[in-house]
């Protein structure tokens, strides 16, 4: 007999995008998530506000064209202001997330597990029972990711100085980088519970890159909204739990049965 028709699965990018929206919607309707969410959102909001507003103020204060500046210099400085402000809005919340993950890792892990308990209680219990990654390596990996992100963001900013084409390329490059990094950060509690180190994480992120980009794009754009965006990071962390539950294996290092 012919096999029953299987519904066609959406492409990985679209699956990731859909899981981001479904996860954030779930977070809005779960009372268990609320308590853990408030601590995380408050910490990320304050840090993001300081980083983004401070960066934009410093940029505009130090890039004012002088009255005798040539047209090309003036255009270049204004391009730097525009691209730099966009980069600051994208980067600020993520730098705040990095900082919270480094200093207060229990905040995002608490929200992640609360969300996972709502979606898949057995898996949440299994991950929560794992010994997890020791604090030292966990902090080291987070700092290394932060250094790479800042370095690549500076490269995007420099590309943005190229007139017209550079402005577009720098903005698109920063959006891609931020989406990928946001998705990676939201998987940090998953990696931490399973004690997956940086080299393994890189391989894993490359393997699931399309789905992670689709997942990280709407969340990174949401976080970039001034003032409001960072307050919604708790929703994003619950979306990370949704992505793990629906898209990822229980433990990527375990061999699947033949």
Automatic annotation (TrEMBL):
InterPro entries: CysZ/EI24, Spore_wall_assembly
Record-annotated membrane-spanning stretches: 36-59, 71-104, 149-177, 219-245
Keyword terms of this UniProt record: Membrane, Transmembrane, Transmembrane helix
Membrane topology designation: Multi-pass membrane protein
Localisation per UniProt entry: Membrane
Gene coding for it: cysZ
Identification of the protein by name: Sulfate transporter CysZ
Originating organism: Enhygromyxa salina
